[in-house]
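Sample intake — ArsR family transcriptional regulator
Collected from: Microbacterium resistens
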Amino acid sequence: MANGGPVCGPISSYSRVRILHLVQSRSPRTIGELCAATSLHANTVREHLQRLIEGGYVIPSTERRTTRGRPRTLYSAATGAPDASSPVARRKVSAAAQRGDLMRRLLRTGESELGRDATYQLDALVEHLEESGFEPVVDEEGLRIELSPCPHAAARPEHRPVLCRVHLGLMQGVLAEAGGPLTADCVRDAPRPQECTVQLGYRGEESRQGVAEVPAA
């Protein structure tokens, strides 16, 4: 393991990462589909999904059937969009904004120069990253977040692309849930696995050049 903190939160288990990747790639998903794709037992898949639901990253719904039979539970990614918003994620964002406001009052610092909405987005994103075992350092001028050393540095090389895509998708969901101009555009390519930089975007600005993108699935 790298010198960063322990991996925790929704991506502490690679099996859970695989499930979240599948749900982010196409929603909704059924238990049967996830079992077939991962070769995991249904009970194990349900346990992972419950953790993801409790974290605010997956939303369960009941299938609407037009024929006889028991409706299945469907699982979708929480993207922060109006029709894909998790109540857990909404509570987290609200709490992060309140704690951020309190901290700024105690330190007598103002909101970010990026504006109030962007400040709240950064509050929510930093809390999410810390909860996941990262030590984020925000560069507001460059619209970057440094996440080095990456707690996933010791992961298998073949797992890292999926890890990056899944976590980029989670960051995009957090920013969308908070509401505001900031977006998580990509994870920048790095020469060493322990190095990690997330490039943010500001809606309305032209795309920044020279960034090798790891797109969300």
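Post-analysis note: The two ends are 26 Å apart (CA to CA).
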